Amino acid sequence: MTTPDRNSSPAGTWLRADKSGMASGQKYASLVAALLLIIAALYTLREFLPALAWTVIFAIGLLPSFQRLAARWPRHRRGLLPGLFVLAVVLVFVLPILVIAVPLATDAHAATQWLAQAERSGLAPPPFLIHLPGGGQLTQLWQQNLSQPGQISVLTKGAIHGGGAQAASTLGRDTLHRLVLFGFMLLGLFFFLRDADAVIKQLQVGSRRTFGAAGEDIGRQIINSVHGTVNGLVLVGLGEGFLLGLAYLATGVPHPALFGLLTAILAMVPFGAAVAIAAAAALLLAKGSTAAAVIIIALGAVVTFIADHFIRPVLIGGATRLPFFWVLLGILGGVSAWGLVGLFAGPALMAAVILLWREWIGSEPGPINPSASDIGPEAKTALD
Prior knowledge:
This protein is mostly helical. The chain folds into two domains: 104 residues, no CATH class; 172 residues. Helices cover 77% and strands 0% of the residues. Helix 3 packs antiparallel against helix 5, helix 6 packs across helix 7 and helix 9 runs antiparallel to helix 10. The longest helix has 44 residues.
């Protein structure tokens, strides 16, 4: 057996010089023990698995840029550069939160004053209500329940006693929990980028020993899928939010930056931007700007149609080599099964399964292609 330095041995260094090893019973016992250890480790880390999943997603998305900069400034690849990338991720998340928090705080103060005024004098029905189907009955119902002084307090007290305080407490706990997970994700991202070369080498050696060449092919396909999904969902979503944010600004939507950011976030899910567009149009209708609302709906329909039917299929399908139908099922099914992580995990899983299927049936070259000797003459003729 070779005896390299234990403190600096790269992956794949320690190999047995002979073929002697464990007996058959020892191998089975070792496999069972290893499986139990893995299950126990996953159970121990169960609360932090989402943070680790996001660490992997961010690392895959940022690794090409990090490696280019690390090749240019190799002295800083284990300290300054990982720290700068982590700082960039923090800024990308913190700045949007500030964009949302500042107008919300201002609006909360204005809403408190508005509620106090409505409590004293009642709330008049909005002008557009009369133009809706059944507008007369809706206006009468509004006047009976909201136009009288003191009616607002009845509704707000009912909401508070109905669980508003409990919902606020739950929201606070969930926010703190997500902040902790976000912190661990940033810490994991720093160490992954710092030791990226060693981690990649270890994964390659482990995958090759466990699954052979097929494992390496699947891993490469999953990484390409995550890259394509990041480009197709995140970048396209940000583009939609920017374009529609300009439209919100031009048509007089309140807080256009806030609605542009909301559109960008929702647009990362296919067809999700329609919710933000509808909300912006509803605000314009409430202000009496019917023409502006129609413009927002029309522009939103054009932008989302082009993004969802032309740009996304090229970016995601080109990287994953999947028809966009399967990409869409992977995204929506992933979100349903795994939450936001499923935006990236779903298409990656679909890409891996489709790759296995293509190699298994022989429509794509790979290590699990069927052997020619296993295919009868009739099947060979059909394939030819």
